[in-house]
Amino acid sequence: KRTKREAFGSRNVFIISAIGSAVGLGNIWRFPSVAYESGGGAFLIPYLCALLTAGIPLLFFDYAIGHKYRGSAPLAMRRLNKRTEALGWWQVLICVIIGMYYAAIVAWAAIYTVYSARLTWGKGQEEEFFLNKYLHMEAPGASLSTTFPKTVLIPMILVWVFIIIVMSAGIRKGIGRANNIFMPLLTVMFIILVIQSLMLPGAANGLNEFFTPNWEALKDTSVWITAYGHIFFSLSIAFGIMVTYSSYLKRKTDLTGSGLVVGFANSSFEILAGIGVFAALGFMAQAQNVAVSEAVTSGPILAFVAFPTIASNAFMGPMLGVLFFGSLTFAGITSMVSILEVIVSAFQDKLGWGRVPTTLTVLLPLAVASTLMFASTTGLPLLDVVDKFVNSFGITFVAAVTLIVVAWFARKLPELAEHLNHRSSFKVGKFWMFLVGGLLPVVLVYLLGSEFVKLIRDSYAVANGYPEWLVSIFGWGMAGALIVVAVLLSLISWSSKSKDKFDPEFD
Ligand code: PHE
Ligand code: NA
Fold first, then answer.
1. 440 C-alpha to center of ligand 2: Å?
2. Residue 132: pLDDT above 60?
3. Which residues line ligand 1 (CB under 6 A)?
4. Three-state SS string across 335-354, please?
5. Distance of CA 363 to the CA centre of its chain
6. N or C terminus: which one in the chain shows less Cβ crowding within 10 Å?
């Protein structure tokens, strides 16, 4: 007998959860520096083009697949066409990798929220504290370290326990509720943080630096490619997340209306983060008497070195630190939940098991592997390599192949457009099909090619001072292994409970 598919409590909870997935580390520590380095104020033009011609059309594409075929990524792809199931598993495996290292970042952010209250890192010691006293960072030698600093290990275990509890509670009581609590909290905290940053001395210099347009940058194709690459990452599109979430929507739902809300909400949050981060960097530059351009960083160093420095020096610094790291923690948790749901949902469909047994069976081993890999003293270099390969290839590669297969081989775009238009306020037509089936595959293949050439040409290992084996095994090796494992998973047979779902008319 078939059990009924879980569902979000309402369309609003779905929208909040989709925004929760989209708004993440990318908004806070990636967008500001990407925009700054790609033309400042002028970057808004390629950015908006990418949002309108790639981000939002692809959100619609993901929603259409998840909602029409009502399944996790592999089940939806299996119902779309007998031969495309492996693509769904490939998306699942990318989420396995991202989920493993996201947990480490969330754990660092969570404990740094606590450290902020007393500025534990010590004024002037911020970098030394993060890399040595906190992470006890080791350069990877012949193998990964098996030493686990307690301050990393314990928060990581707690993060996993918390996430497993949320996910075991299901879509409505777990994921929906967590987003309903954390997203309003995140929004309020972040707005207060931005206001506090804007009041710091030097904030105006930071904003000037951030918004001053460099129109020349628009002539550079790599700036446009950067804008498209960022939008894919930022909206968490084309690798199973939005497919999974929309499979939990009720039949009668305005899909395109939801997509527009999610797309614009995520971008608003990015611009807001750009303002907050650059106001704070302007203050830091003034306090250290350097140019703003010298104070700009991104990623873990921006979050865990620059922001502690700002908190050490600012008026009401502990509050600024708590707001910043609290925001990072909540933004990370709501993204992480969406990543892990792709995995749990896929195995639930394949095995026909209930929510709790599937969650425990899938997430406990993942939690152990994640902790063993990323809580050790070589966690940061490993995280850097894995993140680089997942972001440059994993996501873009799977997005390109999915679009090409669905649009050109399975020729499903007309049906998907019809499905979108059935209930939606904003209708799509030929132009949408042209973007999704024509322009975007080309953009993606170009993006992929240029990343590939870059990685080969300036050996990633050499450029970053990492040993060759680390990049071969955890970069190239992992990327290849994902494809092989995806094909193997697609060969395992489905639970008899799921089999009747292959009928595309299934409801
Ligand atoms: N969209 C998230 C962000 O902007 C990042 C993310 C990527 C989340 C992949 C889930 C999966 O930070
Ligand atoms: Na985002």
1. 19
2. yes
3. 21-22, 24-27, 98, 233-234, 236, 241, 335, 338-339
4. HHHHHHHHHHHHHHHHHCCC
5. 18
6. N
